[in-house]
Amino acid sequence: MDSVKLQDRVDTKFMFRDILLPRIFQDMQKHYRILEVSGFRYSNYETLYYDTENFALYLQHHNGKQNRFKFRSRKYVESNLHFFEVKFKSNKGRTVKNRIKHHEIVKELEGKASEFLVETSGHDPSQYKARIWVNYRRHTFVSKTTQERLTIDTNLTYLDDKSRKTYDGLVIAEVKQGSALDKSPFIALMKKYHVRENSISKYCLGVISLHPEIKKNRFKPTLLYLNKLLAK
User: Fold this and answer.
1) Domains, the chain, with CATH or none
2) Which of 1, 20, 32, 49 is the most buried (most CB within 10 A)?
3) What is the DSSP string of 37-80?
C-alpha cells in the first residue's frame, strides 16, 4: 500500500450490479492482491461531507468547473481511525488528496481542521457546514504489476438530518493510477463484462438522492444508466 498511495492520481470509475462480483473477483486473483487489516478484508467507511448552504461545491462539479475542491471527514470503522481530507480535482484531470489525522469525525470546521482547509484550499471555513453522510463498505486491491490501486464499494448509504437512501445491489469500482497510460487489468475486465465507465462522484450522487430538487441535468445520462441498472 505504501508504494501506491497515489495522492496525486488519475481516477476511472464504474458502476455495476453485485451479481457480477463473484466472477470479477475470480478473474482478478492473478492480477491483484487484496488489503487485509486485523483479519478484515474489507473496511466500513463513514464519511461526512461539507458544503455551503446552497451546495456550491456540488454545483461547481455539476457545471464542469475545473480546479474544484471537496471537503470531508472520514472514519475507518474497524481501525477507528479518523481523517479530515481536502480533495482537489485539477484542470488536468488529476485528483490530489491531502489529509490530517483527527481524533473523531469533524462535525464543525474549527481548530486544526479549519486551519488545514485554509492552508490547502484558501477557502473560508465559515462558509461550509456538514451536509451529508456517505457510508459504504470497501474492498481495496493493489496491482501485482503496475502502480495501481483499486477500490470496490458496496452497501452505499446516504444520510442527512431528514432523509436516508440506500442503493442495494450497487457496486462502485474506482481504478486509481499514477498515469492514465498505464494498462489496467481491471479496466480490461470491465470491457469483458460490458461495463462502461461512469464518472459521477459518490458525493454528487448523494446530493441528488437526498435533494431531488437540485440541478442535475449534467448527470442525467448517468442517472438513467443507474436506474436501468438497478431495475434489472
Assistant:
1) 2-231 (3.20.100.30)
2) 49
3) BTTBS-EEEEEEEEE-TT-HHHHHHHTT-SSEEEEEEEEETTTT
